[in-house]
């Protein structure tokens, strides 16, 4: 089995195992808390319905109103600032879900907009990531030169360290701002930044959704949009170093296998046509009318004498005869056969070093 197939099978097994382990851990961490929250909410609902004598249908209407009013607390979601925010979440595949189109035309345009925008965004962020890695490598080289380092080239480890540090600083700085403007805890702010920059976008925590931020705080809106775009460029740089390296491993293995196969094919000796040995016998290298040929390995000798044991084996060059000779009389001795046989019985002619090889 090829290395690529083995790697694919291992990736599938590892991914499924990782999913099962994650599901088990999330079950242990969250299931009991979810159960307690459900009990508390059911108790509050019963208390409110009994206190104010609200029917079940009226309570469902109140729930719907509360849920639908939540996005409007940020201001007008579909003015230019809010629409630009929504377009970013579509193009970057974050998809908070804080605002969604309600008209048929809006939903239709969202689909066509995403078909073109998502590939465009991926290519753009990938290109920015490559330029950022190039800029980081130049800085690393200059720093190494100032430190009189023997190796001044920037390695992948150096780039990964730089990009990881820059990502941590971006998340830490963004969390500080969001904690101040949104009233979140610092840990929740870090959680929001991480979920946003990895384009997971659960939507449980969304910036610019309180106190009419879209209408009343343009500087905060500008910071949020720049943070998302710049942070995604940093993440793209990380992906360019890590993920794409593993993705291209299959291609490298395929090229390596092709090179090994080509090298093995060059080492094989293929003979086409009739091969004439030193004793005058003929080895047929082409049988039939279809051009089927035979192959001789490096250890195969077409010499009739027993001198192969006294010579060091060496790699024979590749010989290829394009056509079989039409006449071979000029290659054979012109003496009568009887004279040749009598001479060979008395004493064989001395062998020269070049008679140990086949004559083609």
* Helix fraction by DSSP (H/I, runs of at least 4): 55-70%
Number of helices: 11
Task: Give the termini distance in whole angstroms.
Answer: 40 Å
Going by helix content, strand content and strand pairing, the class is mainly alpha
Largest pleated sheet: 3 strands, antiparallel
What value does the average pLDDT take?
77
Give, in order, the helices and strands: HHHHHHHHHHEEEEEH
Count of DSSP strands: 5
The largest sheet has its strands arranged as 1-5-4
Identify the overall geometry: globular
Uncertain regions spanning at least 5 consecutive residues: 285-302, 308-313, 337-346, 351-360
Question: Any chance you could write out the topology, listing elements then pairs?
Answer:
Elements: H1 3-51, H2 56-69, H3 80-91, H4 104-146, H5 156-182, H6 186-197, H7 213-216, H8 218-241, H9 243-247, H10 249-267, E1 269-271, E2 274-276, E3 282-284, E4 286-287, E5 292-296, H11 337-346
Antiparallel strand pairs: 1-5, 2-3, 4-5
Helix pairs in contact: 4-5, 4-8, 5-6, 5-8
Protein architecture, described:
A hairpin with a 4-residue loop joins strand 4 (286-287) and strand 5 (292-296). The protein is globular and about 90 Å long. It has 360 residues and is mostly helical. It has helices spanning 3-51, 56-69, 80-91, 104-146, 156-182, 186-197, 213-216, 218-241, 243-247, 249-267, 337-346, and strands at residues 269-271, 274-276, 282-284, 286-287, 292-296. The protein is 61% helix and 4% strand. Strands 1-5-4 form a 3-stranded antiparallel beta sheet, with no helix packed on it. It has a two-stranded antiparallel sheet with strand order 2-3. Helix 4 (104-146) crosses helix 5 and helix 4 (104-146) packs across helix 8. It is built from 11 helices and 5 strands; from the N terminus they run ααααααααααβββββα. The model is unreliable at 285-302, 308-313, 337-346 and 351-360 (pLDDT under 50).
């Amino acid at each position: 089995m090829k290395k690529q197939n083995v790697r694919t099978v291992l990736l599938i097994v590892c991914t499924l195992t990782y999913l099962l382990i994650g599901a088990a851990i999330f079950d242990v961490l969250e299931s009991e808390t979810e159960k307690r929250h459900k009990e508390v909410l059911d108790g509050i609902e019963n208390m409110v319905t009994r206190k104010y004598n609200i029917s079940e249908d009226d309570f469902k209407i109140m729930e719907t109103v509360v849920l639908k009013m939540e996005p409007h607390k940020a201001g007008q979601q579909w003015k230019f600032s809010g629409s630009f925010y929504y377009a970013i979440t579509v193009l970057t595949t974050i998809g908070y879900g804080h605002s969604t189109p309600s008209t048929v035309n809006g939903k239709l345009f969202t689909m066509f907009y995403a078909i073109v925008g998502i590939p465009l965004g991926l290519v753009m962020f990938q290109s920015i990531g490559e330029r950022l890695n190039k800029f980081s490598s130049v800085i690393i080289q200059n720093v190494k030169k100032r430190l009189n380092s023997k190796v001044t080239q920037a390695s992948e480890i150096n780039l990964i360290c730089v990009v990881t540090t820059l990502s941590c600083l971006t998340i830490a700085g963004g969390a500080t701002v969001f904690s101040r403007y949104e009233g979140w805890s610092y840990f929740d702010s870090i959680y929001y930044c991480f979920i946003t920059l990895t384009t997971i976008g659960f939507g449980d925590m969304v910036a610019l959704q309180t106190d009419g931020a879209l209408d009343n705080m343009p500087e905060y809106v500008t910071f949020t949009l720049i943070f998302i775009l710049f942070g995604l460029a940093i993440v793209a740089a990380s992906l360019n170093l890590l993920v794409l390296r593993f993705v291209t491993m299959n291609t490298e293995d395929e090229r390596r296998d092709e090179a090994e196969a080509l090298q093995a094919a060059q080492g094989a000796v293929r003979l086409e046509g009739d091969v004439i040995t030193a004793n005058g016998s003929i080895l047929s290298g082409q049988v039939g009318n279809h051009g089927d040929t035979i192959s001789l390995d490096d250890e195969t000798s077409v010499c009739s004498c027993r001198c192969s044991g006294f010579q060091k084996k060496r790699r024979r060059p590749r010989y290829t005869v394009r056509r079989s000779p039409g006449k071979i009389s000029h290659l054979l001795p012109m003496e009568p056969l009887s004279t040749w046989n009598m001479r060979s019985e008395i004493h064989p002619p001395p062998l020269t070093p070049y008679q140990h090889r086949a004559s083609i």
